[in-house]
Amino acid sequence: MIKSYLNLFVLTLLIASCDPCDDCDSILFEPTINLVFINQDSLDKIDVRRKEINSFITELDEELRIIDSILTHLNTRITDLNRRIEDGEDLEFEKMQAEDSVIRITSNRTTPQENKDAQEIILDTLNTTTATINSGLLFVDAIEIIETGGLLTFEDSATSFRVPLSTNASFFNYAVTIGDEINTFAVDYELFQEVDADRNVLIRARNIAAMITNEGNSFDSLVSCQENCLDGQATYTFYF
Amino acid sequence: MGKQLILFTFSLVFTFLVCAQEEEQPDEPIPEEATVDQPEEDSIQVSKRVLTPSIYIDYGKLLTIPSSQETKYEGGIELLFLEQFPLIIEAGMATLNPDQAFANGMYESTGMYYRVGTGYYSQFQPKNKLGVTLRYGTSTFDESSRINIISTSGVQDVAFPPIERESLTASWFEAVIYSDRKLSDLFAIGLNLRLRVLIDYDEQSPVDVYAIPGYGRSFDNSIPAANLFLKVSF
Questions:
Q1: Secondary structure of residue B46 in the 3-state scheme
Q2: Smallest Cα distance from B87 to chain A, Å
Q3: Contact check, Cβ <8 Å, A32/B152
Q4: Kind and range of the H or E run holding B33
Q5: Which of A190, A223, B95, B131 could form a disulfide with B121 if both were Cys (CB 3.0 to 4.6 A apart)?
Q6: How far is residue A213 CA from its own chain's centroid?
Q7: Among B97, B78, B105, CA closest to B89
Q8: Do B152 and A164 touch (CB under 8 A)?
Q9: Mean pLDDT along residues B1-26
Q10: Mean pLDDT, to the nearest integer, of A25-35?
């Protein structure tokens, strides 16, 4: 009997001393910022092309308006001739001439209309492309953290790219590869420690500022986070 | 915190009920001649000891030894004057490793604590004392922790500097309801129900102190507690 109690006591001690959380005392976390890349050069080129197309469509519209006006006039004349023929006048030849004109002009209308339709399709495509570029959707080949050599690669296009900030320094340089172009920028910030609601101790970053670093960059401009530039929330938009 | 309050309230009510029941049903019948031949009040006062020294250990704390989250030892010295007025000095040491301190790290708070207090005991039953005391507690302790953060992107090693703090202090008051039961002329067992109220501690920023040996969690301004003790009186 005593042995049974002893066994039970030892078992209880063993259960009490088990730590089920030996491997779970860590967290996946690092401070990050959000990057958006807008291909402004492409936007500018597209904008020029859109203006050309819009101008062409305006010309075609004017041409179609004149044709439609002539056709309206001819149809009115044919109606008038029909009424006078019914009244006994001999105007069959004039009517035939007017109808021939309608057929010929209607045929001539087809070309500018087809041109206009084609230009509108191109314009729609350009508008879609503009919206896509404005959304930031882009394929970025890689972003390298220059200080550590750490390389972030991306499999798909995305509208924004999350990059880590150093947890050991308050300054990081990055090189962004988009197609054949490599552009660099730097970010500085202030690190701080925080205990979150789940009692995780984290290293966070605040007062984050980004800047374009060298003259050879094809980055033209940068729109930075203005207020409460906290990691995980701050977004920086680069135009190139 | 809610569970602790319920436990504290239940323990308090339970203690009073047990004592009250024992008052209604005395352990030993009083001999008839004793009721007839009551000793004079003066003779009772004469029989009171001026000073009763005792030492005691908190045997409930020994149950923490197998625990991976805390190890505590505690004992005290009591000088009881006129069998009613105790002067209490308690000392303890604790090593606290609560899992809930940090979700992503290991934490340890270790140190010594002391309490002094006084109050009033009543001989509630021939073998039972019940009393109320007030105590002042102070703790000196060290904190250490190791925080583990793994880089989400995997492109850097996240090194969180270890937290090492030494000679932190904290102080608090305790209101204690005391009860004991005499087992023999030498030994008694008892229960202390405590309500601790934090006075102050060495606050740290941004990662504050979590556990104070002898008190509890630093962000609890008041904490109920219970101690079981074995007392040896001389």
A1: helix
A2: 37
A3: yes
A4: helix B32-36
A5: B131
A6: 25
A7: B78
A8: yes
A9: 50
A10: 93
